[in-house]
Amino acid sequence: MLNVSGVSVQYGEAVALDRVDLTVNRGEIVAVLGPSGSGKTSLLRAIAGLEPVTTGEIVWDDEPVTHLPAHRRGFGLMFQDHALFSHHDVIGNVEFGLRMQDDRSPPDRRSRARAVLDLVGMAGYDHRRVDQLSGGEQQRVALARALAPSPRLLMLDEPLASVDRERREHLAAELHRIIRAAGTPTLLVTHDLDEAFTLADVVVVLDGGRVLQRGPAPKVWRAPNSIVVARFLGVTTKLRLPVVAGSAATPWGMVTAPPNATTAWVGFRAADLRVDPDGPVGGTVRTVWFRRDHYLVELDTADGPMTVTSSRPPAVGDRVQVRADLEAAVILDA
Ligand code: ADP
Ligand code: MG
User: Domains in the chain, please, with CATH?
Assistant: First the structure.
């Protein structure tokens, strides 16, 4: 198991990571989710041994690895830009990951490389040049190269960033299957909500080099612990409501406020607010966006602006009614 405690990384005076604590247990997929510049790549590089830490400790099981050189840590890293060698063919790239393992003979290296290429669905591509592959294929080769030496920890930097939107979901499912099949504990970092929540068991939210929240993925999704995290996790409509006797009255009914709160912040994702003629809240349509399987509608209401979904496109200026899934509301102390 990986245990990162109080790890900081600085570039000159600039603090990129500020006392980060993180655990990856056996068989677990952990996603660190944060906006660009939040310190995700710095974190992976520090754990991999490619960036010195200014404070803190990195421990694998009971072995401190903080000061071990990268190649002695036994961790595999797939870089954000893949960093494949364009002058090697596919199998050459994967074998490169095995060169540090002196106990392997060349035929053994080749058969191991073939086995992982098979695992990632790239069997038969051995002698293709990597610059003649699609983004998704390159991603699989990079993954195979990271997996080939059987690392005790796999780290992935924005693994789906270079894949076309249409292929993302498919590749995310593939990646999930491959990681599970290999059984390697995995730490991935991404700015993409879908990528984090479709792949990970545990999500850690990072901003400005600090951990804001961590927990099982469904729990973090349902219960962001701050307004900043809620906004980052797609909560677009927010109401500030007075708390009376422990409850706040939303236009759709009462919700329980956090203990001791005098004002509640009640937030909704667009998917949990729907245009419905029977909805109790009325609003005037300001903008309409087409979103493939639904429309995203911005409204002005007596309770403030709301972002809601609709199966049909209303016209700008229309009056519409809105219903809410109160169970899905995010409730915080304002
Ligand atoms: P992310 O991967 O989340 O986008 P990074 O870890 O790459 O974030 O960067 C975190 C912060 O550290 C950013 O402000 C970035 O500009 C800075 N940074 C990253 N690498 C370097 C470097 N080699 N030298 C100086 N500053 C850096
Ligand atoms: Mg990065």
Answer: 2-222 (3.40.50.300), 234-333 (no CATH)
